[in-house]
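**Sequence, structure tokens**
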Amino acid sequence: MKNWIAFIAVAALFGALAGAGTTMLFEKNSFKEYYSVENAVHVSPHDFVEAKKKGDSSTLLVDLRSKGEYEAKHLAGAVNIPATSMTKQEVLDAFNSLPKDKEIIVHCYASSCMLGRQVGKFLSENNFYVKELTVGWAELNRDYSDYLVSGSEAGLIPISEETAVCNGESFSC
């Protein structure tokens, strides 16, 4: 009987140690997965603006706010797809009409706003993939006022020689 108790105790100890190692491995993989996804889908406003100042035309920013809010003021270069006043099919059709040679980036009201994530999820379920700006209108209005325009036209961010696009070699952005 004592041998069985000792055997069970040793087995439980090994099981606990194996479980702890598995948990730590799972946690490390979860961190790797989280940052891989974050880097795959998010675009910083700094990187976006600096790339546009350098003349990059490979991306298109889509402002998901209402038409009136967009026309009052928006980040230069953004086009408007007012998702909350459209059916899902209209949203899908609007995104499908965008240039196919550009990476599409969406933004909505604030970094905490779920609209961009909801639209992104819906689009991905329909095989259309977009990235998301890490901030929304509230932060753009506060931090990027030099690049805001009014009206129904997208406008342009002026090309400038003084840019600081991240090159992937540093963490400065």
User: Anything to note?
Assistant: The two ends are 65 Å apart (CA to CA).
